[in-house]
Write a structure and sequence with these properties.
Elements lengths: L22 H4 L1 H16 L6 E3 L2 H10 L5 E3 H11 L2
Parallel strand pairs: 1-2
């Protein structure tokens, strides 16, 4: 990723965003709590975007993050290929 000009910042710990398929529907309050924790942690960083490889995380995180894009890793790779070709 660095070769294509992307400086990745990893979170301090890996955690669940709270989507987990039907979990987010079956345990709405718990799911929202997990989402709020993730959003809070991500907002403390200086990241310009949130990148994930999980479509479920994209959906969940986009509900809580409004001031920066939430992107799938493939979107980022695709964009960089078009910019560098």
């Amino acid at each position: 990723m660095k070769k294509i000009g992307i400086n990745l910042m990893e979170t301090q710990e890996q955690k669940c965003c709270g989507f987990a398929g039907i979990f987010s529907l079956s345990y709405k309050k718990l799911s929202e709590g997990l989402l709020n924790k993730c959003v809070s942690d991500y907002m403390k960083t200086e990241a310009e975007a949130i990148i994930t490889s999980c479509p479920g995380c994209m959906i969940q995180l986009a509900k809580g993050i409004n001031d920066k894009p939430v992107l799938h890793l493939i979107e980022v790779i695709e964009e960089s290929l078009f910019q560098h070709s």
